Amino acid sequence: MAAERGARRLLSTSSFWLCCLLLLGRRAPGAAAARSGSPPQSPGSSIRTFTPFYFLVEPMDTLSIRGSSVVLNCSAYSEPSPKIEWKKDGTFLNLVSDDRRQLLPDGSLFISNVVHSKHNKPDEGYYQCVATVESLGTIVSRTAKLTVAGLPRFSSQPEHSSVYVGDSAILNCEVNADLVPFVRWEQNRQPLLLDDRVLKLPSGTLVISNTTEGDGGLYRCIVESGGPPKYSDEAELKVLPGSDVTSNLVFLKQPSSLVRIIGQSAVLPCVASGLPLPTIRWMKNEEALDTERSERLVLLAGGSLEISDVMEDDAGTYFCVADNGNETVEAQAELTVQAQPEFLKQPTNIYAHESMDIVFECEVTGKPTPTVKWVKNGDMVIPSDYFKIVKEHNLQVLGLVKSDEGFYQCIAENDVGNAQAGAQLIILEHDVAIPTLPPTSLTSATTDHLAPATSGPLPSAPRDVVASLVSTRFIKLTWRTPASDPHGDNLTYSVFYTKEGITRERFENTSYPGEMQVTVQNLMPATVYIFRVMAHNKHGSGESSAPLRVETQPEVQLPGPAPNIRAYATSPTSITVTWETPLSGNGEIQNYKLYYMEKGTDKEQDVDVSSHSHTINGLKKYTEYSFRVVAYNKHGPGVSTQDVAFQTLSDVPSAAPQNLSLEVRNSKSIMIHWQPPPLATQNGQITGYKIRYRKASRKSDVTETLVPGTQLSQLIEGLDRGTEYNFRVAALTVNGTGPATDWLSAETFESDLDETRVPEVPSSLHVRPLVTSIVVSWTPPENQNIVVRGYAIGYGIGSPHAQTIKVDYKQRYYTIENLDPSSHYVITLKAFNNVGEGIPLYESAVTRPHTDTSEVDLFVINAPYTPVPDPTPMMPPVGVQASILSHDTIRITWADNSLPKHQKITDSRYYTVRWKTNIPANTKYKNANATTLSYLVTGLKANTLYEFSVMVTKGRRSSTWSMTAHGTTFELVPTSPPKDVTVVSKEGKPRTIIVNWQPPSEANGKITGYIIYYSTDVNAEIHDWVIEPVVGNRLTHQIQELTLDTPYYFKIQARNSKGMGPMSEAVQFRTPKASGSAGKGSRLPDLGSDYKTPMNGNNSPHGSPTSPLDSNMLLVIIISVGVITIVVVVIIAIFCTKRTTSHQKKKRAACKSVNGSHKYKGNAKDVKPPDLWIHHERLELKPIDKSPDPNPIMTDTPIPRNSQDITPVDNSMDSNIHQRRNSYRGHESEDSMSTLAGRRGMRPKMMMPFDSQPPQQSIRNTPSTDTMPASSSQTCCTDHQDPEGATSSSYLASSQEEDSGQSLPTAHVRPSHPLKSFAVPAIPPPGPPTYDPTLPSTPLLSQQALSHHIHSMKTASIGTLGRSRPPMPVVVPSAPEVQETTRMLEDSESSYEPDELTKEMAHLEGLMKDLNAITTA
Question: pLDDT over 90 for what percent of the chain?
């Protein structure tokens, strides 16, 4: 390294220079101090001073031509005088043997006879001046570029042209950019003199403005670049006499974008031609430029703009506008201003000791942003472990050694230039104190060495230095106090360390006196370091401890990040990613995993790759994605690369613009409005829109118009009167044109309104006085054929001329505010147009006093006043419907009764759609216009109810708002996490915690459940966390069997029908140390009286506690239910055996009556139903779990369907009653159906009440069938049997419900067929619950009257508490209606008396009460 070379030179000549310095110091110490810029030092002083060493002149960029001579200036100041050398393209030039290059006495470089050819360019390149002082060091200058102009080549030459007198003309002559300064023009082979009228542009083009006859002739341009001149072709310019004929206005030369450096000049050419002669004006960023008053802005010949001494504020877009009275043309160009690097903060000279850490500061600015590199004694500083670039531009040197002395230079460079600034580093001996206060460039770890030492005893070496903690990247050292100072309260310590085999030593200081440990960080893994400790007291540094050798731990051999990851788009839907093998592979790479994610989302996808590149297909068009790569070896995944982002290519739009509407302005123009295509279908930056329109009668003659992409409306003018036109719009990207909208029609007015006279008087004027304001409303003049531009409202106390307010012609009401209470105001209203104001209309009003609080005031203040409609308002649209398309889009459709039946719009009417949501209540309406009978409303919120209404406007008439339509957008996955997540410990159970939370603020639908994640490692992958699902919308959950005194982290995720939402932030909770104590910083939650801990039969370690009910109690309940069932069956069998033969005959007759041959004659009112039914509709199996929400695991069993659907019963028709009775009785068979079975088919089944609380779930009643099923009608007298296995299937279904629910079994009521047996329950289907939305869901408790009973069956599943045994099913169908019950009793009168029935039922009721007492105990 050059630094070491300089150090050797320094040692070899140190004796000579030392003698010289001593002699100079003895003879003239003051003069020496003046030269060094430091105060005089005493002869005994050993502190060296900083030596001034800098460049007086540095080389600059130079342009030369072949064969000429060039001087590159350079001069440096130092004492002694420096030696000057030159570098070209980074290599030193040997000027001794060079004939053409020589060093001038001041250090400049002289190059004679510059050589330059196509294949030999020895002189062109980058030059740098190097100054060296043997005893000090080396500095380098800025880099200068020498450019040699090439051979002349014409890219364009002048052409023959003609011009009218007074007009402008241009003659092109464009050559290489470096040859433009050598271009001149000739007219008729004579040199052309340039003046204010004749101008040569920077490109070489000749501009002649305000031409005269003398400007005609032959023109050519010449390039003189050192060799023989190069001539262009000759072109003749003809000057024609003036003419009155007009010609189109065109640009002969338009401005082009420029890049200039601050301080240079910029010329923006702009030359226009046309008759009449145009004038040129300039604008910048849509603001007019005043070239006459500005000193830096000059308007050149032809209209070109010259900006001298360019500043940063001059950057922007410039517009050249040419106008000749008939037409206007415009052109624009961008001026970009760049700046060379400048130093905001330069490096400063630094004193330091060995082993210290220092920082050279360097802050630069420029445009583009400069890059910074550092040079030490002329050689590039390469970043390493001890030379680091910090804070972007600063240089940090760690663990200084003597050879680090010298000159350091910060070199800043960008596209437009470079600059350098330097500073000197002097390293003093340890026994020499730094003479000044510690500069800011010294780090905090080195400031303890700056205090001068005093004489006195020094401490001995610290004892027992050991490495108490060794890691991969840090080592912790501890020691004992020195033997010389056993207390050591006032001692500070320094720990010196270095890599084994490296002489550069660094150190760390203790934080406060008496501290005897230091942690050394930022070490390398698996590396040996040598440590020693030294104590310091007020007298100085003591002895050093013996060296301690410590090796850091090796890191796991995982791959490093893959370098040079790049991404590039290959199509609108694919991106290719490439990378290289990791530099720190640490073993063979097995494969790579490429992760990619769409910008703006948090869903990252990955793909396994075995090579160094991969193409991802199926991406969205013109969408930005981020990519990263992780390498895998046998130990696992390595370090991920940084994210690299890239965007897929654009494509033509895949959808047409939205909401195209037409507004007829007058008889010759139509305004078109539209909105861009949906963002997901734009597929790129919309650069413009293509409007196509045609007459409806001439569909082949289509006119096209292009508008910029930022424009969403266009006025089409020059149309024919009273003509129908068709319009369509398509969006454009750089790739082409997308699909167009459908053709939309509008018809221009037959004639325009009259504006040759003032408007007539308004047809009405209404005033409504308030306390401090008056609401004025009016209607337009009756004669609407005269143009009305607006209305003038005058008002004042006693006179209407005190104040005047003008409003738009569309407005129909206005509120005059800030009036005085109880005052008499006179108000006048006049319509006006461009001709003048019309006849006024007068009205007066008295404002109300302060005490007036009538309803009218409140109405007007709290709600906007509805304007008085026009004399002939239009009919509002009807049939407004809202069709939900997605979570944020609703399509609104309507009909217009004022249109023909085919609903085709042929006039200029348009519709206004407004919509809003009532949450929050003060939401304002949003509006949009449409010219069709539908509108697509986008950008709505998910799962939100909106109301919509529509009004129609035709010309100056409008309708009122239509009836509102409502629509609720579809659900979307939650877009925010659950809120207010808290964790507390449960009282008395230290290993159980309770998690509470609130629903997400953006649920976007009904929350169907939550997932709780918890782990002891917050940084673990999410798939390694423990998951606790929470079903339903509960906001609390218990987790058991946690480890004591352990920190846990909890996250919660909400879900709805659309999916999972984002996770909440991790919440930390530490479980208590001992049983019965609360967690740290927690308090017991108030769960409330409604809180019920979820039950779990399998006693899961992380579930809820099991039910406290004893299994013996369950066994008693089951045996009791079985006994009661047997007793009921025996009683029914006794009743059935008493039936006589006559009753069997009645049964046959009833069976035959199915075909309609028998008509029942009886009165339903003769016999009242006995207490047999005991109002079973009021009885219900009540869930023991008192949670306010129904158990979501439970399912309803749907009604078993036969070949015909069950239909409701009409009690009002006698024929239906007769048919229902036959259908009811038709299930009995004389031959095969026993009496007991027959009675079972008719007897009611009863529900057993398990709780007296109101029901937790609504039970749906199902009407009975009106007609016999097909199978039953054919086999009337056969036995009706239930399918096999019904009982076991019911048991199995109930057991599955209990196991899956993990909660207290719930008695659940299911509707079923009215004739199902008490002993054989229905088979529950295996699928999810089925709900019939047409049937009401009514709690059983609300059913009071028997006359409203409907045939249904309810199934109660009594779960077994704390066991896996299946629950006992209890099937309780409802009773028949009163009329049908009466008829059944009449049929059975011959078999038994009502008294017997009453006695038996009284006994049965007693049994039921006993059962109820057992189950509720």
Answer: 24
623: closest CA among 601, 595, 640, 594?
601
Q: Say which residues have a Cβ less than 8 Å from residue 1014's Cβ, sequence separation at least 6.
A: 1025, 1026, 1028, 1039, 1048, 1049, 1050, 1051
Tell me which of 969 and 1415 has the higher pLDDT: 969
In sequence order, the 6+-apart residues with CB closer than 8 A to the CB of 964 are: 880, 947, 948, 949
Tokens representing 308 are 């001298």
Contacts of 753 (CB under 8 A, 6+ apart): 666, 784, 785, 786, 787
> Within 13 Å of residue 797, how many CA atoms lie on the same side as its CB?
10
pLDDT tens per residue, range 33-63? 333 333 333 333 457 788 888 898 999 888 8
Please say if the pLDDT value at position 618 is more than 50. Answer: yes
Two structure tokens written together for 548: 């301690």
In 3D space, the residue among 1322, 1299, 1292 whose CA is nearest the CA of residue 1309 turns out to be: 1322
Q: Are 341 and 414 in contact (CB under 8 A)?
A: yes
Structure tokens at 1233: 């159906």
Distance CA 17, CA 436 (A): 26
288-330 per-position pLDDT tens digit: 888 888 888 888 888 889 898 888 888 889 999 998 888 888 8
Segment (H or E) for 663: strand 658-664
In sequence order, the 6+-apart residues with CB closer than 8 A to the CB of 149 are: 63, 64, 65, 66, 116, 176, 178, 179, 182, 225, 226
pLDDT score of 184 more than 50: yes
Residues near 587 by beta carbon (within 8 Å), at least 6 away in sequence: 557, 559, 633, 634, 635
Distance, in Å, from the CA atom of 845 to the CA atom of 819, rounded to the nearest integer, reads 12
**Residue 1043 region by backbone torsions, left for phi larger than 0, else alpha for psi between -120 and 50, else beta:** beta
- State how far the Cα of 1038 lies from the Cα of 910, in Å rounded to an integer: 60
Structure confidence at residue 166 as a pLDDT band (50, 70, 90)? confident
User: How much of the chain, in percent, has pLDDT values that exceed 70?
Assistant: 71
pLDDT range class, residue 1139, cuts 50, 70, 90:
low
Taken in order 1247, 1250, 1251, 1257, is the CA torsion positive or negative? negative
Distances (CA, A) of 634 to 207, 554, 590, 631: 74, 17, 7, 10
The position carrying tokens 């006499």 is 241
Do 354 and 503 contact (CB within 8 A), yes or no? no
| Least confident residue range of 4-18, 196-210, 410-424, 647-661 | 4-18
pLDDT at 1165: 38
Max mean pLDDT range (501-510, 950-959, 1362-1371): 950-959
**For residues 200 and 184, what is the distance between their CA atoms, to the nearest angstrom?**
8
For 1386, list phi and psi in degrees, rounded to 5: -65, -35
Cα gap 400→396, rounded to integer Å = 10
Q: Which residue has the higher pLDDT, 344 or 1398?
A: 344
Q: What whole-number distance in Å separates Cα of residue 51 and Cα of residue 44? A: 19
Q: How far apart are CA 716 and CA 709, in angstroms?
A: 17
The first and second tokens of residue 1116, run together, are: 């008693």
Residue closest to 1317 by CA, chosen among 1291, 1287, 1294, 1288: 1287
pLDDT above 80: residue 1128: yes
Cis amide linkage into residue 990, ω under 30° from 0: no
Q: CB–CB of 59/76 below 8 Å?
A: no
The answer to whether residues 1351 and 1208 touch, using CB atoms and an 8 Å cutoff, is no
Q: Report d(CA 1326, CA 1009) in Å as an integer.
A: 23
pTM: 0.39
Q: Where are the beta strands (DSSP E) in 955-1101?
A: 957-958, 965-968, 979-986, 989-998, 1009-1015, 1026-1031, 1036-1039, 1047-1056, 1059-1063, 1067-1070
At 863, give phi and psi (nearest 5°): -140, 145
